[in-house]
Amino acid sequence: MKTTLRKNLIAAALVGALTLTTTFALAADSLPSWNDGKARQSIIAFVEKVTKSGSPDFVPPAERIATFDNDGTLWAEQPMYFQFFFALDRVKALAPQHPEWKTKEPFASLLKGDVKGALAGGDRALLELVMATHTGMTTEEFEQIVKDWIATAKHPKTGRLYTEMVYQPMLELLAYLRANGFKTYIVSGGGIEFMRPWTEKVYGIPPEQVVGSSVKTKFELRDGKPVLVRLPELNFYDDKDGKPVGIHQHIGRRPIAAFGNSDGDLQMLLWTTAGSGARFALLVRHTDAEREWAYDRTSSIGRLDKALDEAQAKGWTVVDMKNDWKIIHPVETR
Amino acid sequence: MKTTLRKNLIAAALVGALTLTTTFALAADSLPSWNDGKARQSIIAFVEKVTKSGSPDFVPPAERIATFDNDGTLWAEQPMYFQFFFALDRVKALAPQHPEWKTKEPFASLLKGDVKGALAGGDRALLELVMATHTGMTTEEFEQIVKDWIATAKHPKTGRLYTEMVYQPMLELLAYLRANGFKTYIVSGGGIEFMRPWTEKVYGIPPEQVVGSSVKTKFELRDGKPVLVRLPELNFYDDKDGKPVGIHQHIGRRPIAAFGNSDGDLQMLLWTTAGSGARFALLVRHTDAEREWAYDRTSSIGRLDKALDEAQAKGWTVVDMKNDWKIIHPVETR
User: Which pTM was predicted?
Assistant: First the structure.
């Protein structure tokens, strides 16, 4: 084959391959678990206009940053944030090494199975539980503890692995955005190191694209080997006002699309939509008591009240789980 | 053209294109400003073994994380860190709004041109200078201030733009690593928001791959518009022990290669090389008093003492700028 011909064929094939990819990514069947309603249509309309070359709303791939809340947006969060179940299991596992917990709150109540009593101490009790179970070890040790737990622990109501309680339509949305050149991030109030060990496998989101709450860590040489030790001191709380702060700190760019489900995500959505050019904000509303849970304005977990008013005032997309989603969890597709 | 034939041609062309890319990336001419010595050879040997499919040292692309110090590693740092010149210029620019600085140290000495006198106050004076010049505005305002300064300010000795004082061999190294599937990060003691506005253009490193020191920021609504305000409080100091902490916080993976030039990088290099599998550590040694500066064990800026001992003991690569680099700055290639 002559060199010029070969070069031309390579060029043609590359262009062909790219075109095929784009067409596939934009195809209507990228979101098969979404019913054809306003929510799905608004997502596709936004993605098409920011990716269309020559469109006044075109955004270069490097700036296609999309941020997702985790609890209640990518996976379920009832009757408690799943990280709280992790903390409970850790209290039980660590109890033999802490005889003093038998008489010390909030541990004593927890060990008797009285979660409500344990949480009567409010935020202080919760923080004490988190610090007792999430710190005092190296970062590598903590990673292994999380990996072991997430691989085996089951949800108390569904009996499923927690990673089976992710939302199939959101997995499709993540993949659809990435196929269109978006970089997808998690921005969660949950612990950054509680999520990183499994987000790549479950969501396709690598550790460096996870933003979350954190404790301070300290560099140490132990017998000449460098380790990072997790300290019982809060470093950053990535919720509400903290979300734009965490986004700025980690990403250093303003997202063009943000996805949440509760008042904890309001500031992230405000920050995202206040940028110039095309912007997109979406709230997942939990309306399906049968297939999942139904809750919003008065729930203590995942309260959606102020953010819902704001969404209605500003025309943000609100997903009605019951009517917009054909399937809730991936297990339903099997 | 028949469909099968077309498909085969596409496949062949794609494979061909990929092979060409790989061959090009691995070619000896990827590092043209490096003399063919031990340093250059050690870099190429490392990259070849971690990228070669089937090699016992193969590392999947997602884990090919390389971290670079900035001051003294990617650009010069004498006679002062360039960010300090930025702070000085800001003091002068802001002085009319601060009549009290005429009699208040460290500002009074600075405004008289007495830098040494201003710095007699040590770290406290330095911190005061940084806070007075780097905080009190929104993140967007600060970004614009940095952009304006970096586009025009000149180095007091060379008369060049600071971004012209980057190291050509290191630019080639960054590109060579990226062509081989590495993700390149900056991990600097300098301010994260002082670097992000120009690192993509100058180094090809996007904002989300810059780790650095930071001040706290606060989310606010100003006339209904969300802003992030820079507060006069240190959030994180990304030097020495802080570098592995910053790497863990931002990237959540241990690098497989790290590049520095001073004792401030020692912990990053220790942390990087303590991981399992193939690892690479490199120190740039400033040995060229004629084309740049020569300094190491006794310099107050960029001291290279303990890290040099460690490099010699552990067989890390040490670049001798005078002998290893044909060219120091990009301007020499014009």
Answer: 0.91
Q: What is the SS3 assignment for A186?
A: strand
CA distance to A121, A308, B269, B324, per residue, from B317 (Å) = 55, 57, 11, 11
Q: What is the pLDDT of residues A192-215, one digit of tens each?
A: 999 999 999 999 999 999 999 999
Element (DSSP H or E) covering residue A195: helix A192-203
CB contact under 8 A, B274 and A225: yes
B196:A252 CB<8 A: yes
CB–CB contacts below 8 A, A to B = 102
Residue B257 exposure: Cα atoms within 13 Å on the Cβ side: 28
> Searching chain B, which residue's CA lies closest to the CA of residue A208?
B251
What are the helix and strand counts (H, E) for chain B? 13, 8
Residue A15 touches chain B, beta carbons under 8 Å: no
Residue pLDDT, tens place only, B157-215: 999 999 999 999 999 999 999 999 999 999 999 999 999 999 999 999 999 999 999 99
Distance from CA of B250 to the nearest CA of A (A): 6
A173 closest CA partner among A325, A20, A62, A314: A325
Residues A250, B245: C-beta atoms closer than 8 Å: no
DSSP state for residue B120 in the 8-state scheme: G
Q: Do B226 and A13 touch (CB under 8 A)?
A: no
